[in-house]
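Meet today's protein:

…
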Amino acid sequence: MAGLIKREDIDEVRQRTDIKEVVEAYVTLKSAGIGSWKGLCPFHDERSPSFHVRPQMGSYHCFGCGEGGDVISFVQKVDHTTFSETVEKLAARIGFELHYEDGGTGPRREDVGKRQRLLDAHKIAAEFFRDQLLTQGAATGRQFLQERGFDRAAAEQFGVGYAPQGWDTLLNHLTGRGFTLDELKLTGMFSASSSNPGRFYDRFRGRLIWPIRDITGDTVGFGARKLYEDDQGPKYLNTPETSLYKKSQVLYGIDLAKREIARNRQLVVVEGYTDVMACHLAGVGTAVATCGTAFGTDHIKIARRLLSDDGTGGEVIFTFDGDAAGQKAALRAFEEDQRFTSQTYVAVEASGADPCELRQTRGDDAVRELIADRRPLFEFAIKASFGNFDLSSGEGQVKALRHAAPIVAQIRDVSLRSTYTRELSRWLGMQYVGEDQVARAVSAAARRDAGGARSGGRSQGQQEQAAQQAPGGQGVAGGDAPTSTEPFFERPDPRDPMARMEREALEVVLQQPTLLTAAQWESFSTSRFTVPVYEALHSAVLAAGAAGTELSRWVESVREGVPDVLRPLVSELAVRPLPAKDADAMVLYCRDILNRLTELRITQQKADKLGQLQRMDPTADPVLYNQLQRDLMELEMQRRLLRED
């Protein structure tokens, strides 16, 4: 068995490796002062850069999620490799020869990590496919490329290859290079025979092959295009999900585009491999494509890190076919628009041609013009939705306005929002829906959205405040990508007086539960909390109280009663200083806060009963009518007593 890597060699690798160079393969870094660099953290989703690198110290730290360490721990975490594999990878990067304890020479083949073995298999397979493209049997593949305007140099630039039509050509090639069948089963490049499960054959046969690489340039999968009519498979066939290849996390062309994306603060999302090739060859070096899936949350995380998507600029441009499927894809993309602070656009050629077809028929200039003539994605989404309404009728226009006003209200640029408010009025037609009515509808939608539903609209100061108020980087609204298993809560607007009062009441109850009288506890228990974040905490406090929780476990019990994402907020409210100089002042402060909460509850009850009273016919149920009036008087008396307290 191979010995352990010598400690002095580990230290040497750590010292010789430039951590900034390594990190920049994953994160776009900007100067943050003398000897310091910062960018968006690769370990958690964030909008304001909190990930710092200090090359002189050889260390990194994220002030958002708390991750930190040296270059070895960084690569371990980002590439999911073992300590030994990471040191060996970094040593190879700088050309340093490692030495092992007990005279070992490094791990044997069977001890090498599975991930590296899979990467090696993919690298050799990609080289095999590239070589096959030059053979006589690949004539149809070369013709396919030539017809679409791609010469040999273009094929080499993108590593395009050809999978022979034989059943086991690649299988034999890789086993001949020392890979076992058990290893190759894990690559996704082979399929099991239905009649003989123990027999495997090449998954890709008689097809053009595109290597799909991760952001570091390692090949993790393949995309294959059908060439022959007798091929009964789908037009495009990709590697299935493997430990290396997760289609929701890979973007074709990202390895070639990452530096241009970072430099130009632009990301162009196209639909296919040939579209990526066409864009890059035409001078649009920021193009990438998804691999058999929609552009989703995990793709956005990758894109945002490269774009330095911190609200200071940048653009994401989606290109779609002009057909119904393309329109549907654009609307799906718009649903994810809120996860960016960069402006999102859509580029659709009038004829419906994709970038590859456009370059083929009209040249490189046409591709560049397509991207330059982009239009805001929200405009596309609004106009596309109008097909669902009868704009020739007043009712249809009103319905269309109700649908479109929230979209316009979400436009981050205020001046642009005003422009599109006027445009929306024109698009709808003035006969039934006037410009004033449109403006009022948009303003109302914007007020509803002011709580931060689109956190990209927050100022940098608000973003930083949210980050500071959310320990551990799990900001209540700072996280852009809610998971399917965790509820998502918006960070309340600190300017909202209702949110502030509910927060202050929770602070009192969490920190000073023994100061509450029975009446105050009853008032707190029956109060209706309106802010979702605080409503969840309110429910947890009530549950802890109902369980008779001891004071020593009070806060922890409340923490256990909320979703994981809210636990840092419980800790925050439990330690936030209360404005009281001494014990007597604390009693007065707590009483005042709880009295204000009680008054709010009374006001809410009065509003409910008054509304019920106004909707009633006094002659229909005079008993209930009189009871409601008495209730209103009683509530008003309670409110006055509180004011006198």
In short: The chain has five domains: 7-111, 114-238, 254-381, 389-451, 497-644. Residues 389-451 form one domain. The longest strand covers residues 219-226.
